[in-house]
Amino acid sequence: MSFLFDPDSMVVTTALELLDSHQPVSVEDSTCEACGAQSPCDTAVNARQVELATDFSRRFPG
């Protein structure tokens, strides 16, 4: 499998921070806590795509 991003890159770090902040307000309210859009918002979707394209196995050799 080919990965696009290094886990230590600024792109990945930023995407993970965005994923942490762009979450639903609660189980009952699916509004994004950070931007007010319906969750999952575009920011969270794009950040998740970056996360999926990252080779995190490099952090844990073995």
Secondary structure topology:
Layout: H1 10-21, H2 42-52
Helix pairs in contact: 1-2
SS content category: mainly alpha
Work out the helix count. Answer: 2
Strand content: under 5%
| Approximate shape | elongated
Instruction: Sketch the topology as an H/E string, one letter per element.
Output: HH
Distance between the termini: 17 Å
What does this entry look like structurally?
This protein has helices spanning 10-21, 42-52. It is mainly α and 62 residues long.
Please supply descriptive tags for the structure shown above.
mainly alpha, 62 residues, elongated
Quick rundown:
With 62 residues, this protein is mainly α. The protein contains 2 helices and no strands.
